[in-house]
Amino acid sequence: MRHLLSIADLDRDEIERIMELADSFAEVGRRDIKKVPTLRGRTVVSLFYESSTRTSSSFELAVKRLSADLVSVKAAGSSVDKGESLRDTIATLSAYEPEAIVIRSPHAGAAQLVAQWTDAAVVNAGDGKHEHPSQALLDVYTLRERLGALDGKQVWIVGDVLHSRVARSTAQAFTKMGAAVTLCGPPPLIPRAAAEALGCAVTYDLSGLGEADVVYALRMQRERMAESFVPSLREYVANYQINERRLGARQLLMHPGPVNRGVELSDDVIEHPNSLITQQVRNGLFVRMAILYELLAGGERPRGAREQGAAEAAVSQPIGEPA
Ligand code: NCD
Questions:
Q1: Is a pLDDT exceeding 90 seen at residue 228?
Q2: CA angle centred on 144, ends 141 and 149, rounded to 5°
Q3: Which domains are assigned to the chain?
Q4: Nearest atom in ligand 1 to 55's CA
Q5: Pocket of ligand 1 (CB under 6 A)
Q6: pLDDT digits over 164-222, tens only?
Q7: Is 95 exposed, middle or buried (0-12, 13-18, 19+ CB in 10 A)?
């Protein structure tokens, strides 16, 4: 794996490999000393042009747990505020010779562009409405931990699919792992062509929700809505909110966060025993450690010749002793 730009670039075996690596890093997370020397001496740039709590904190902690050096830049407060372009910002940060750049941008395709401008491995931490592949991988990991294989499982993704990069990545990842995905929400928020391209079923009401093994709720992304897509939030809540009445005893609940409490989820289901929301955040750290490991030490290294021996040794023994 050279970059992580899109789930479309990964096949099932590559996803499985990241899952196995994440298992090893979860084991490290259970140790007293949770830090390993695996990426010592490497530099990772984290560049966030959009708000983030979970994704930025987990990537940053993942870098630190792997003993790499971190340069963290947020658009607000950086020279981006002064009008510096993405290309110039990448050129500036490339002066530190980072091995990886983790980027979140409001523009679809931004991570792909950055990959053309740098030698570093690029991780797409969300590009507009396009993709959020590390979220999809942590979601697969979380479900796999609970259900074992995803083959034949029914996953319903409910809510604002139109504006959701999470839905675009997660639907692909679940499908690649053998699950059947249904997209559900108000018609203006369900892009039919995209659903077909993703191989997902579409429905506009929750009447068949009982068939779902997993209910994956999405945030209403009001910041991306230039116009009104639903008549009122009250109507949305009445028709699509996942609450204790709608969530069956055997159904698992997921949400990428942040949750609009009382909109897509009622308070009572957020802390429900079937809710995997906290688990998703916890696993995000292990899966992002696995992604960074795979990109920087996992074989197809960008600067092939450099430290080749060390990279190969690391592959055979990925975790090593505590740092
Ligand atoms: C999501 C995002 O930013 O795409 N959050 C996340 O990364 N966990 C989903 C959202 O903002 O609704």
A1: no
A2: 135
A3: 7-131+283-316 (3.40.50.1370), 133-278 (3.40.50.1370)
A4: 7
A5: 54-55, 126, 132, 135, 165-166, 219, 221, 256-257
A6: 999 999 999 999 999 999 999 999 999 999 999 999 999 999 999 999 999 999 998 87
A7: exposed
